[in-house]
Structure formats: C-alpha cells, structure tokens
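Revision sheet: structure tokens.
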Amino acid sequence: MISEQTKKKFAIIFRNMTPDQRATLQAHLLTATEDQKWEIIEKIVATYESKANNPFVQSELNPTNEIEYTDEEEIPYEPEITEFEETYEEDEEDDEKPARTPKRRLKKSVKNTLTGFIVVILLLSIALLVLKFKETIFAKISEETEPTQQTEIIETTVETTPSPTPTVTPTPAPTIVPVAANHPDLTGLTVVIDPGHQETTDYEQELYASWLSATKPRCTCGTTGVVTETPEYDLTLQYSLIIRDYLEQCGANVILTRDANDVNISNQERAQIANVNGADVFIRIHADAAGDSAASGVRVYTPDSGSFTDTSPEYAEQLAELVAEAEGLEVNAVRATSLYTGLNYANTLRSFQISLGFLSNSDDEAVLVTEENRAAVAEAISVFCEEFV
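Predicted:
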C-alpha cells in the first residue's frame, strides 16, 4: 500500500494528463496485479517530484509555493508542445526577443514533465510485456512437458508387451511308400534327382550351354495347375521326395538338388551337383504346360550332345513308356535337345528330364495331384534305374 499523500499527488498528476495518456495508463493498471498497480503509481509520482525546476509540479504538488498563472495556464490538459516550439522559434527571429513569461516557462516544464512520464509509461509497458512473455513461455513448456511424459509411458508399455510368436507351417513330410515285393535291387547305384524350378524366379541370366551365346534366367518358378492352382515347383518337390524314399528302400544312394522350395539354385548349379557326385543317373522332374488345353501326356528330353547321344534316346523312350503306363497317360514326345541348361551342363552323364504331364490340362492335373500317382511314378522310376546297376 502507499500513503494517502502519494495517492493525492497521483490524483493531481492523473487529472492533468491528456485523455490519451490517461487511457494508456488505465489500460496498464487494468492488466496489472494489485502490487504492480501501486508500484506504477509510486514511480509516476516519483518521476514528477524529481522535476525540481518544474513550477507546475511545485505549485500543484506543494501548494505553499505560490506562482502567478494567466487564464490560459489554468487549462493544463493539452499543452500543445508543437505550438510552443513554433512560437518560440518565431520569437527568436525577431530582433528584440521578448522576456520569457511564466506562461512559456510553464509550457516548457509541462513538456519536460510529460516527456518523462511517457518514458516511464514505456518502461512499464516493456516490463509488463516481458512478464507476460515469461508466463507464456512457462505455460507452453508445461503443456509440452506433460504430453512428452505421457508418450514415454505409452512407449514403455508397448515395449514391455511381448509380441506374439508367429506360427510357422512346416512343409508336410511325404508319405513313405512301401516298396513292391519284387522291387529292383539298386544297391551301389547313385541317383541324383532334381526337383524342377523353385519358389522364386531368379532373372539373372546364364548360358544355355558353354558353347552357346544364348542366355536364359538362372531358374524359374514354373507353371501352375489350371484347376487346383498347384505350383509346379511344389509338385515336383513332392514327387522327388517320394522317389528318393522309394529308391533308398531299394538300396540306391539318392541325392536331391534341393529339398525345399525357398532356395535359389541355378540350372547350371543343379547339373554341377550331379557331376560332382558322379551320378549314374541324373533325372530332372518337371510338369508341362501348353497354350492348347488339350495337350496331354508324358514327355522325356535328353541332351543332344555329350557322352550318351547314341543310347540316351532309347533309354528316354523306355522311361517315358514306364511312367505313362503307371499314370494312365499317353507318351506325348521323346526328344534330344539343347534347350535345357540342366541337361547341357550334365551331358557327360546319363541325363533325363521327364515331364510327368500337363498342368494346363485339367485331366492330367487331376492325375498329377494324387498321392497314388506319386507312388506309381516312384515305382516306375525304380524299374528304369535298374538298367544302370
């Protein structure tokens, strides 16, 4: 709180302000706290009292100091500073400068007083703005801090929650087919079986043959059944697994070039597996497809170059007839060719590529997808392999 004397002095100062000055001060006082209001009032009064040579201040704030005023001086609300300055300059241009009257001294003192007051108001305004700025920044920091903490809690909760373990569906093991009572004895025979294709096509190019400049993708995924949509790469693996088990029961040493679908093995690499293992027989298992849905039957291919070009066509014909009879299909074709990379790079071995039927033909497909047919094909191939023991 401030003294009653200070309040009276402030009332006199406030009464002598211009309307604009009063409005500005009132706006600041309205937004200030109680303590800030009294601090502003004290600073204004102190500023006016510091003007020792201000006759207006001395006479108004200290009534014992008497001074004479003209009628014009009794209207202190709007002392036109610019008018006084212009009048003063005109007086200085006259040869005879009139003596300064109390009126001019009053106007100059009012000018000085009001200038000081305006400076105080500006300083107080800046102080209030700084105070409000600090409050705003503090509030903003507080608002930003709480969501951040909440987010961290949520993230911690998520991190501590164990994720479910994915269920892996294993590839079903093939049914063990019991061998026929009169099965051939394949003891000592090494057979390499190549389940054709793979799950994902590898489009990187490789040569058809070391003596050819033409290239083709390293390995493809093959065709798909028109009815069951069975992929060729999976069909050939299922047949190869059963053929391996059957031949092993007959005493053969059987090697698969792949035992899963998710692999990447080029046709050259498959042929190399047969070469490295010194296969007595290399059989590549495939299905076929044609634009003509009526195309049907079994096809067998052999390399048209290499060590067995003279005898391979005869053996290829035998293989085709054994498998076609087991499946109940016809022999479609037996050919020597250089179109298959896997045969070309294994042409020093007895190499055969058999297409068990056409997946583009719904009747062939219905035969190929049965377990009974797989067992029948395995038995037919065991009979074929007996030729090389």
